Amino acid sequence: MIDALVIGAGPSGSRTAWNLAKAGYSTTIVEEDEIIGEPCQCAGLITPRTFEYLGYERPVFQEMNGARLWGPNDSFLDFQASETKALVIDRPDLDRSIANRAIDAGAEMRAGHRYLGHKKSEEGITATVQSKNGKIEIKSRLIVGSDGPASRVARDAGLSTKREVLAAFGADVEGYQGRDNHVDLFVGSELAPRFFGWGIPTGPNEGRIGMATVLPNRPKNFFRDYFHKGAPSKLLGGAKIINRVSGLIPFGTRNPSYTDNVLLTGDAAGMAKPTSGGGIYSGLISADAAFEVANKALEKNKLDSKTLSPYQDLISQRIGGELTKGHHLRKAFLSLSDDQLSEIISILGEPKVKDAIEKTGDLDYASLAAFSVLKAQPKLIKFAPLLLKPFI
Q1: What's the average model confidence in pLDDT over 226-241?
Q2: pLDDT (0 to 100) of residue 169
Q3: Element (DSSP H or E) covering residue 220
Q4: Closest by alpha carbon to 190, among 158, 145, 221?
Q5: Structural domain boundaries of the chain?
Q6: Is the pLDDT of residue 70 over 60?
Q7: What percent of the chain has a predicted confidence (pLDDT) above 70?
Q8: Same fold: 2-42+91-161+252-308 with 62-87+164-250
Q9: Residue 124 has what DSSP assignment?
Q10: How many CB atoms sit inside 10 A of residue 58's CB?
Q11: Among the CATH numbers 3.30.559.30, 3.90.1200.10, 1.20.1440.170, 3.30.9.10, which is that of 62-87+164-250?
C-alpha cells in the first residue's frame, strides 16, 4: 500500500508527485507513454510567470512581445508590447524536467504503463494498470487523476461532467514566414470556427502552426486550408510539414474535482483557459492546491470526500475566478459574426485601445486586458453585452 498514485506525468501530475514525494509520502506515477512528454500535444507557449512559479527555467526558443491578428474581410492588427509577454519552449523538455524533479524527490515513475481503472477498497483504492508483462494492481491511499481531458480516473470516480471540448490540430513546419517575437493569430468562421488558429515562430524560417475548433468539426480539414486560403496561406507558401500534433482541449472546471480518495488536477479538473486553451500555469496551481489538501488528509489518515473538499475552494480562490471570467469572454466571442469580428479588430487598432492591450495583455489573465479595453473604448460593449458580466 502506497500513499499516493498519480495517473499522468504531465506538468500537473508530476508537480503533484514532486510535492508529495518531497514531503515524504510514498508516491508512484503511472504514465501511458514510454517517453515523458511525447507525443507532444501542445503549442509550447507559456508566460514567464510559469517559470517563476516553478522556481526554475528551461531553454527558450523565442521570447514573444508582439502579436499579429488576422481576421475576416482582410482585417488586420499588429501589437507590439514593451516587454516579453510569452515564451516559446520545448514542451516535452518541460514535462520531463518536472517529472525528473519528482523522481529526484523519491517518486517512482512507471512509464509505458496504462491505467485501466480503479475500485474503492476499505483502505483506499486498488488501481489496475497494464504493463508490458501484463496487468498489475497498485493499492494506494489516494489516487490523483492528472490524465487529461478524457480522464479515466474522473470517469471511474463518478466525476464526469458535460463540458465543451475542442479538437486541435497542428504541425511543426519549415518555410513559415512569421515575424520574430510575434505570434500570428487567425480568427473567422472560414479558418477556425468557434476558436482561433495560430502561428508561432520557433527559429529561422521555422514555426508551429495550428488551429482548434469545437467537435464534431474536424480540425484537420480546416488545417489543410491554411496552406491554400486567407491569411495563413500568405505565411505558408512553400512550407513543409515536419511533424504533426493533435489533442483535445476541455473547457469547464469539473465541480466537484474530488471524491473519496480521489483528486483531479490539470485538464482532468478542467484547468484549460477558455480564452487561449492553455493550461500549464493553471494546472500547476491546481497541483499545488491538491498537494496542500492531500498532505493534511494523509497526515490525519482521513481521505473521505469531506476531508478533501477544501480542494475545490482552493482552486476556485486561486484561479477559478479567472477561468469563470474567461468562460464569459468566450461566450461573448461565440456570439460574434465575421463582420462584427472585423469591425472589432478595426476598433482595437485605435491608439488608446491598442495601448491598453499592449500594456495589460496577459495569456494567463485575459480578463485584465478585456477590462482595460472596455474602459478605453466602452462602445465595444454593443457587440456583446455578455462582456460586462465578468466585471460587474
Answers
A1: 91
A2: 93
A3: helix 219-225
A4: 221
A5: 2-42+91-161+252-308, 62-87+164-250, 327-391
A6: yes
A7: 98
A8: no
A9: S
A10: 17
A11: 3.30.9.10
CA distance 352 to 362: 18
- Report the first-to-last Cα separation within the chain, whole angstroms: 50
Interatomic CA distance for residues 221 and 225, integer angstroms: 7
Sheet holding 164-174, edge to edge: 76-80, 66-70, 182-186, 197-203, 206-214, 164-174, 240-251
Contacts of 155 (CB under 8 A, 6+ apart): none
The CATH architecture of the domain made up of 2-42+91-161+252-308 is: 3-Layer(bba) Sandwich (3.50)
Distance CA 304, CA 319 (A): 24
- Phi-psi map region of 44: left, alpha, beta (phi>0 left; psi -120 to 50 alpha): left
pLDDT, mean over the chain: 93
pLDDT attached to residue 388: 57
Residue 321 grid coordinates: 475566478
Q: For residue 67, list its beta bridge partners.
A: 79, 183
